[in-house]
Write a structure and sequence with these properties.
The complex is a heterodimer. Chain A is an alpha+beta fold. Chain A is about 35% helix and about 20% strand. Chain A folds into two domains: about 15-60, Arc Repressor Mutant, subunit A; about 75-150, Alpha-Beta Plaits, CATH 3.30.70.3460. The model of chain A is unreliable at about 1-10 (pLDDT under 50). Residues about 1-10 and about 170-174 of chain B have low confidence and may be disordered. Classes of the chains: A alpha+beta, B alpha+beta.
Chain lengths: ~160, ~170
């Protein structure tokens, strides 16, 4: 582990990526160019071979460094429903409810958070009406209320993790 | 509604775009020419596939075609959902200012649910340490001044599920 002073606070948590892995992770979060040979173009930009890029991508997907590589959909723009919802689940019930909530294909992300409202998930449905219906079904299955927190206004979305 | 973006009258996507979305929601084929590969699967010329992706990105149906990291694996183990109780008459202005901070990845106005939830502004910040997140939250607090009646930070302690947004095949489950 190279100890660069200004990164000191990060070292204990930061995995050791090679320079190539770092470059790929940083570059590909920003998006693949929509060109006829997109991986070749990115590989050229990074000064590596196209096959090296593809192999690294596959390896990082396989080992869980990347959860996905593909189009990032904007559910609202697809005419569907999208919301953030939260639940208050007693710890004794948490595993059961997690399994039940995760069993819904409409649940895209689900996080445990440290608060009285301790389960937070994103629901994406094909139609706007699907949200209310899905929430009803989750409440019926789990026996706990769901607090719906749809976005009322979007100020900014730009998720990027530099490594 | 004031300035920005409440788009509910979204474009309906065409059947062919839909097929492309369904074919790629688990991921883009990791081959030299992914468009041709998809075209072959769907019986569509490669250049039409590429053209449709360009058009979907242009119109905002897809934000981009990109790598989605497991941020825990990248060392960003502390993801703090900072939430703020902002006076209703200041929310549009304050939301915009918080959203403009470089370290805020998502920023939304959302409804309160009293008595359990009094916060109407959500700003997601990520850090490699607890202190880093607290420090960023402190900067937001300073920016908000008297407009803020209370706040807290919710840390995620576990990813319970992360599949991304998905379209379902066109049928209803019972």
């Amino acid at each position: 582990m190279s100890a660069i002073a200004e990164h000191e606070d990060r070292q204990p948590n930061t995995p050791d990526f090679t320079d190539t892995e770092r470059a790929i992770i940083n570059r590909l979060q920003r998006g693949l160019p929509l060109t006829t040979a997109p991986f070749k173009d990115v590989a050229d930009e990074l000064g590596i071979g196209e096959q090296v890029l593809l192999d690294h991508l596959k390896a990082m997907l396989a080992d869980g460094t990347l959860t996905r590589f593909g189009p990032m959909f904007h559910a609202g723009e697809m005419g569907g429903g999208l919301t953030l919802a939260a639940m208050r689940i007693p710890s004794a019930d948490f595993d059961r409810v997690t399994e039940q909530v995760n069993s819904f294909p409409e649940v895209a992300h689900n996080y445990r958070r440290e608060h009285e409202l301790n389960m937070w998930f994103v629901l994406a449905t094909e139609t706007p009406d699907g949200i209310a219906d899905t929430i009803e079904r989750i409440e019926a299955l789990t026996g706990h209320p769901v607090y719906n927190m749809p976005k009322e206004q979007e100020f900014h979305v730009n998720l990027h993790f530099e490594v | 509604m004031s300035t920005s973006t409440l788009k509910s009258e979204a474009a309906t996507i065409s059947q062919k775009d839909r097929e492309l979305i369904l074919a790629t929601q688990d991921g883009l084929p990791l081959v030299s020419d992914p468009w041709a590969e998809l075209g072959q699967q769907l019986g569509m010329p490669a250049d039409e596939v590429l053209q449709r992706f360009r058009q979907m990105q242009e119109s905002g149906v897809i934000r981009r075609v990109a790598a989605v990291p497991n941020h825990y694996r990248l060392g960003y183990k502390f993801n703090g959902m900072t939430v703020w109780d902002i006076h209703d008459n200041a929310i549009a202005e304050m939301g915009q200012q918080v959203g403009n901070l470089s370290f805020v990845s998502h920023c939304y106005r959302r409804p309160r649910h009293l008595p359990y939830w009094s916060y109407n502004l959500f700003a997601m910040v990520h850090g490699t340490s607890h202190e880093e997140v607290e420090d960023k939250a402190g900067k937001i607090r300073a920016l908000l001044g008297d407009h803020c009646a209370g706040h807290t930070i919710l840390y995620s302690s576990e990813i319970l599920k992360k599949t991304g947004l998905r379209l379902r095949k066109q049928k209803h489950n019972n």
